Structures are given as structure tokens and as C-alpha cells.
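Private note to self, pasted from the team thread so I don't lose it. C-alpha cells:
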């Protein structure tokens, strides 16, 4: 056989193997016996051995290729991978539907999907080839796990779509594979995985792709990220298109025209859940129409056009052994229940927060009680109540101490608060918790500095304040337990890199009360440097649209503290960046037709997409909202504007045409 003939034969074999694979792994409906598939694969392997130059990355023989990695590369998600807000009952779902209806012109239809309990991943295809697979990470930066995802048989290595597309879905481990894997692990003396989600995540985070390949992972695709192709109008059309391209979509999705239909779907699956051969933890409800999705937009964290209904948590009974006290970042002293270990919703639980003394009184929970626990949102364990019938009389009432368990200073109960606080700013427990927050993902994002290492650093007195983190040296770290050469240099590098972080990360990391990550970003983009924020007066802060008085008050007080001044001085000296590096608020022009105005967009425009128009209005200082209300200043109406137009007229809101918008933009 000459090379040309070989090439042709190789092509034919690949096409056939891909087809068989698709039928087997994606459609679950093989047309040939396994032996036939194996025969074709052997044939292909032989030819590729003979003509190695014909091997391509998307050949079905190349799923498990490549050497183990040293570390995962970071991947930037150009379109953020958001998570969903939660609904826990029918009422939450009805509220979601009501808000969605209020935020759009037309009637809304929904798509309901099973909420697969696995790991969100993104798959990118360029010129029809699978080129990159990544984890969600923090939503903006994930990890490159391409070689692991290539081993997932239901992920096509090539598709018939030339444009670059990024599809998203949930990688998971089916129950059968999970049980088999845990059996094996126990036989080998390894710890079993707590649940299929951990098993899937653990498998995909292995540096050696052979391990992932041995784990029988699967995937359902449910959405898109970057999408430079076609003009589909609805989520359901997208699901159909994904399926057409050869992706595995979950067949149980339904389009529902009313929220009552959605609720029926939810109830149906609540009952049917145990029959599935993979784990689901709820139902995802999405607005079907893509224009409506865009109109509804996003909050800081979640889309407004979708919600995750979480199945109610499982409840179990166990014994309350003792109550431990911990001191949080802001000095709040929290009682934690130490429980007889018990399995609930897939993991073993031995601790649960009791929040505060009032709650313990209210629920009449006593030391030694038999208690009912569940996992709120299936994640955080909670003690619901004591089982009074089981009391023997030996149970003891619990009282909060008067002194801080960490530093011994007197605890105070601030006005209108149920919590007891330690107000000693040098309390070691608070400093430690503050540092844990400082290095966390949304703050300074310092990898490799977990709670254990931080505890050790404090215990060994290598650290007393945040600034000390930037004074750590190699030898300091090497003396800690479990810190080898490699993790030490990685950690030092991560600490060093964090010096360059944009201002908002530092601001959030400082842990100023009421200043969340979103507020930190707004502050950073307005004030641009730490110095000008430090000098800002209460009014300068409340002058910013989204900043309330409580937040402004807290910020001004914070920067007035001597300890804070000292800390910021030291951080500056230690080379931390104190400037904002993102898009500037000042790029927003002042004194335009839109400054300070609330604008609503509706209808189809000839010259702009909805998001372009939105960006332009925002650049001119306006804020764009989804629905017309008495607070709306201007409604910009394109063609076929519907009910928003009527509402604007009713309320006497100014209505502009697209032409008027263009005139303003042209200046
Ligand atoms: S849609 C912006 N659909 O649930 C919308 N998510 O917080 C992105 N998940 O991170 C998510 N099944 O890991 C969507 N059918 C489904 C899903 C699903 C599972 C996960 C996903 C996401 C989380 C929601």
C-alpha cells in the first residue's frame, strides 16, 4: 500500500470509528457489535504504526496520548462561566418566572434540564478540531485539562463546524463507574471518593491522562460560550444544534410554556431521580428565547434568565457530642456542633455551624442531645432540632462564654446583633481568619496557601499581620510540615505574583465590612488608587451610584484607623500594587445626554445589537435596566417595540428612536 492509499484508508477507518463511537457513547445505541469496533480500531492502529506521519491529534486512536503534565496551565474564559442562583421551593420558582416576565416584553417560555452533579467544563473547537478543554475555575480563569477531557469518549475530537465554537457542559461519573471505582479503591487501601462529583473532579484533575482515561467519565453539553457561528434564536435550538454536531446532550430536557409546567417537571424528576444512572442535584430552568436572555442579563454573579432548583436536602439523626467555639474574621464568635459522624447526602458530616446562642436556645439544642441534621442546599450541614423523646436527662444546656476563646478579651454584643464579638483588633484568631480571606480566590488569589499552612504560619509565629506574608522567606516555609522545595517555591512565586494584582483584589482582601468583591471593583474603578480612596470623604463615596451610606460609613471608618494606615503603608513599601488596572470609570464620559440617567432598551435596532447599545449608553454614563418603571428616564425603542412602549407612555417616560440615539453618539 502506498502512502496515498494508506491516507485514504485511514480516513475511511477514522470516519467509521467515529461513527461507531458516537453511536455507542453519545447515542447509547450501537449499530455494530463491540468486536467490529475493536477490529476497525486495530486496523487503524496498525496503519498508523506503519505510516506514523499520518497520525493526527483528532484521530480516534489518539485519545490517550501525551505524557503526564507537571501542572495545569491557566485558561482565560473570554465569556465568563457563571454559576446559577438557587431556588429551593415552588415559590422561588414562581418569583423567578415573575421577575423574568417583568423584565421582558414578550411572553416567556422555559427550558428545563436536569442539573447534573459533576464538574462544569468548557470545550473549544477550532476549524472543527477539539483544541482545548478547561475547568470553570473561578469563572474567569480555569485550568487546561484538554488531555484529560480527550479521554472522555463522548466528547468528539472533531466536528463538522469550521467556525470557532466553545461549548459548555457537565462532566460526570455515572453511578456504575463510581461504585466500581470505589470498590477498587477500597481493595487497594485507598480512601473511597465521597460522591460521584468528587470522583469526577478528582479524575479530571490528574496530571496523568491515563488515570482519567481509566475512570469512565461522561459528559452532557448544555450551553455555549464563545460562539462565532450562525444565528440561533433559542436555547432549545442550540441544544438541537449541539446534538446535530455530535455532542451528547441530555435527552430529558423539556420546553415548558408556563411555570406550572416547569413545576410539574420538577416534581416528576424529584420522584424519578433514583432511577437515573447518574447523579442529579436539581433542575435547571432557563428562559428559552435568546433575545429575552440578553434582555434579562446578569446580576454580579448569576444570569437573571436561569435558575437552579435544588432538591430538598436529606435529613438524618445523630448525636451532638460537644460545642466548639471559633472566632471569625470580624471577631464574631460562632458555636460549632461536633457530631457523631454520620452520612448525609453523599458525604460524612461531623461538624455543623450553630450560628449563635439565640439559635441554640430557640431550637433548644443541648449537649448530648440526639439531633436532626440536614445539608442546607445539600452543602452546608445544619442542626435542625433536638429529638426530645430521646432525652435521658443527662443532656446539658450550653452557654456562651464571656471571654474570647482565642485571646481572652471580653466579648461584646453589638447593638441589634445576635452575635457575640471579640473586639480586640489584635486577636490572633481574627488575624488568621482575615488572612485566609485575604488569600482567597476572589481576593488576592494566592494558590497553595490553604488554611492548614496559614494555621502553621501563625502557630510558628512566622506571621502576625497580612504584611508579614510578603516578608516570608524560603527557610521560613521549608521548616513547615509538608512543605517541600517545590511547594515552597510555588508558594513564594504565588505570593510574589499577587503583588501585581489590580487594586480591587487588595481592597476586597482587606475585608472591610460590607465591601464585597463587586463593591471593591466599583470603588477601585472610581478612585483608581488606594491613596485617593483613603482620602475620600463619605460624600465622595455615596456619590457613586451603587454605594450606600452603610458601606460609605464603614469605608471611611476603616481608613481612619491607625492600624489600617500602618498596614497600608507597609504593604506599599513591600511593593504591592495600589492601582486599578481594569477598565476605567473615567472612560465613562461626563455630562452627556445619558449621564446619571436610567435607560431601557427595547425592540430590534438596525445598527446595534442590544449589548452594543447597552455598552454605548453605559459609556456615556447611563445605566441600562431591563424594565420600564417610574425610575426610567429614557426608553430607546427600536422596531417592533412591544409592551414597554405602552408602559413608557403610561408613565410619561421619554421615548427615543434609534435615530436619536445615533445622533447623541455622533455628538
Ligand atoms: S447552565 C450561566 N445547565 O450547575 C448558566 N448548569 O450553578 C450556566 N449544571 O456551574 C450553567 N447541570 O456546573 C447549567 N443543565 C445544566 C446544568 C448545569 C449542571 C451545573 C454547572 C453550573 C452549576 C450551576
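Design output:
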Amino acid at each position: 500500500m502506498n502512502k496515498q492509499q494508506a491516507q485514504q484508508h485511514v480516513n475511511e477507518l477514522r470516519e467509521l470509528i467515529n461513527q461507531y463511537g458516537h453511536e455507542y457513547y453519545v447515542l447509547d445505541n450501537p449499530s455494530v457489535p463491540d468486536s467490529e469496533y475493536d477490529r476497525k480500531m486495530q486496523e487503524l492502529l496498525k496503519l498508523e504504526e506503519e505510516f506514523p506521519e499520518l497520525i493526527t491529534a483528532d484521530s480516534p486512536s489518539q485519545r490517550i496520548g501525551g505524557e503526564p503534565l507537571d501542572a495545569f496551565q491557566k485558561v482565560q474564559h473570554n465569556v465568563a462561566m457563571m454559576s446559577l442562583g438557587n431556588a429551593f421551593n415552588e415559590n422561588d420558582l414562581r418569583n423567578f418566572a415573575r421577575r423574568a416576565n417583568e423584565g421582558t416584553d414578550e411572553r416567556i417560555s422555559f427550558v428545563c434540564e436536569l442539573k447534573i452533579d459533576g464538574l462544569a467544563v468548557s470545550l473549544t473547537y477550532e476549524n472543527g478540531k477539539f483544541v482545548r478543554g478547561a475547568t470553570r475555575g473561578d469563572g474567569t480563569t480555569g485550568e487546561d485539562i484538554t488531555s484529560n477531557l480527550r479521554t472522555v469518549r463522548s466528547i468528539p475530537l472533531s466536528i463538522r463546524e469550521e467556525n470557532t465554537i466553545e461549548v459548555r457542559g457537565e462532566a460526570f461519573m455515572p453511578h456504575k463507574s463510581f461504585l466500581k471505582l470505589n470498590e477498587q479503591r477500597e481493595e487497594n487501601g485507598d480512601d473511597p471518593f465521597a460522591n460521584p462529583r468528587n470522583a469526577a473532579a478528582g479524575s479530571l484533575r490528574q496530571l496523568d491522562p491515563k488515570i482519567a482515561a481509566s475512570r469512565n467519565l461522561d459528559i452532557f453539553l448544555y450551553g455555549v460560550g464563545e460562539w462565532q457561528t450562525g444565528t440561533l434564536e433559542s436555547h432549545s435550538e442550540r441544544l438541537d444544534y449541539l446534538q446535530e454536531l455530535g455532542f451528547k446532550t441530555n435527552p430529558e430536557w423539556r420546553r415548558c410554556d408556563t411555570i406550572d409546567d416547569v413545576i410539574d417537571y420538577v416534581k416528576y424528576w424529584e420522584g424519578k431521580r433514583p432511577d437515573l444512572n447518574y447523579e442529579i442535584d436539581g433542575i435547571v430552568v432557563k428562559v428559552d428565547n435568546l433575545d429575552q436572555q440578553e434582555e434579562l442579563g446578569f446580576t454580579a454573579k448569576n444570569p437573571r434568565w436561569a435558575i437552579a432548583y435544588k432538591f430538598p436536602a436529606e435529613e438524618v439523626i445523630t448525636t451532638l457530642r460537644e460545642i466548639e467555639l471559633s472566632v471569625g474574621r470580624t471577631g464574631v464568635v460562632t458555636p460549632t456542633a461536633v457530631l457523631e459522624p454520620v452520612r448525609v447526602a453523599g458525604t460524612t458530616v461531623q461538624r455543623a455551624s450553630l450560628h449563635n446562642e439565640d439559635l441554640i436556645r430557640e431550637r433548644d439544642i443541648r449537649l448530648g442531645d440526639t439531633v436532626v441534621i440536614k445539608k442546607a442546599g445539600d452543602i452546608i450541614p445544619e442542626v435542625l432540632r433536638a429529638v426530645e423523646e430521646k432525652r435521658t436527662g443527662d443532656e446539658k444546656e450550653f452557654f456562651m462564654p464571656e471571654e474570647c476563646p482565642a485571646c481572652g478579651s471580653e466579648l461584646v454584643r453589638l447593638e441589634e446583633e445576635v452575635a457575640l464579638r471579640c473586639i480586640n483588633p489584635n486577636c490572633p484568631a481574627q488575624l488568621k481568619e482575615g488572612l485566609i480571606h485575604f488569600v482567597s480566590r476572589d481576593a488576592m488569589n494566592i494558590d497553595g496557601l490553604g488554611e492548614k499552612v496559614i494555621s502553621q504560619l501563625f502557630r510558628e509565629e512566622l506571621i502576625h499581620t497580612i504584611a508579614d506574608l510578603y516578608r516570608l522567606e524560603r527557610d521560613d516555609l521549608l521548616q513547615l510540615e509538608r512543605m517541600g522545595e517545590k511547594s515552597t517555591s510555588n508558594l513564594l512565586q504565588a505570593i510574589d505574583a499577587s503583588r501585581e494584582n489590580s487594586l480591587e483584589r487588595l481592597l476586597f482582601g482587606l475585608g472591610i465590612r460590607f465591601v464585597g468583591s463587586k463593591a471593591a471593583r466599583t470603588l477601585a474603578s472610581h478612585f483608581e488608587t488606594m491613596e485617593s480612596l483613603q482620602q475620600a470623604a463619605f460624600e465622595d463615596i455615596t456619590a457613586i451610584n451603587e454605594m450606600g451610606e452603610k458601606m460609605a460609613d464603614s469605608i471611611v471608618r476603616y481608613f481612619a484607623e491607625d492600624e489600617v494606615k500602618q498596614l497600608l503603608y507597609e504593604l506599599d513599601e513591600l511593593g504591592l500594587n495600589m492601582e486599578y488596572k481594569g477598565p476605567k470609570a473615567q472612560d465613562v464620559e461626563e455630562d452627556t445626554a445619558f449621564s446619571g440617567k436610567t435607560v431601557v432598551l427595547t425592540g430590534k435596532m438596525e445598527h446595534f445589537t442590544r449589548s452594543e447599545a447597552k455598552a454605548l449608553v453605559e459609556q456615556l454614563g447611563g445605566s441600562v435596566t431591563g424594565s420600564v418603571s417610574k425610575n426610567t428616564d429614557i426608553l430607546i425603542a427600536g422596531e417592533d417595540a412591544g409592551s414597554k412602549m405602552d408602559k413608557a407612555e403610561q408613565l410619561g417616560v421619554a421615548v427615543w428612536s434609534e435615530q436619536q440615539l445615533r445622533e447623541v453618539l455622533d455628538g
